[in-house]
Amino acid sequence: MIRKIIHIDEEKCNGCGLCATACHEGAIDIINGKAKLVRENFCDGFGDCLPGCPTGAITFEEREAPAYDEAAVQENKKKKLQEKMKHLHEGGCPGSRMRMLEQSEAAENVASAPVQPVSRLRNWPVQIKLAPVHAPYFAGAKLLIAADCTAYAYANFHQEFMRGKVTLIGCPKLDAVDYSEKLTEILRSNDIQSVTILRMEVPCCGGLEMAAKKALQTSGKFIPWQVVTISIDGKILD
User: Looking at the whole model, is its pTM more than 0.90?
Assistant: First the structure.
């Protein structure tokens, strides 16, 4: 049948993926860095994907195409939801996997001892996204770049890692940004004495480590650095 359907100009497409996210029917996939209409019978012709395209690569056209199949769309949505739930609860990303951790009685006794912890935070804000590039506390600083979860997983985080350091934290999985540009500017613009990268053992934490290493490399400076990995049960891994 002849009907209205979207057309994607691959020359203009930059592969950002906004159209695939906007298409609630699931008609578009990103393949080899380009958006493609892979399921013509899933395209309803309403064009939810058009406004989000930053390069104007998506337009309407009228041509021979299979009819919109709403039943198939709903079945596909159901299947994707089932796969997502399976991914989250039966394995999937190690960083999202549910786990129950048991702490020993010795740990509980230590935690209940009458010792008042002291905060070692020396700067604010601490989120990499919010941190300024220029700040007086960066002068001559030892910099700690830590994954968000490390502060919760490692009990003595403040005393062993934050003490005497300026702290920046982030989560590449939740923020979905490349921290390397911001970190590069901080390293270039300030007299940083050393960098400690503190990450969790889960694979998604590798993004923070890679961003910090890239920033160290592109800063043009020789700055001593180290990577420390924390396990899910709160231990320092070799």
Answer: no
Domains of the chain by range and CATH? 2-89 (3.30.70.20), 119-237 (3.40.50)
pLDDT in tens, the chain (238 residues): 899 998 999 999 988 888 888 888 888 988 888 899 999 999 988 888 887 788 889 999 999 999 999 898 888 888 877 776 665 555 555 555 555 556 565 555 555 556 778 899 999 999 999 999 999 999 999 999 999 999 999 999 999 999 999 999 999 888 878 899 999 999 999 999 999 999 999 888 888 999 999 999 999 999 999 999 999 999 999 7
SS3 62: strand
Q: From the CB of residue 38, how many other CB atoms can be counted at a distance below 10 Å?
A: 14
What distance in Å separates the CA atoms of residue 151 and residue 200, rounded to the nearest whole number? 10
DSSP-derived pairing of the beta strands 28-31 and 2-8: unpaired
Question: Phi, psi at residue 132, to the nearest 5°?
Answer: -75, 160
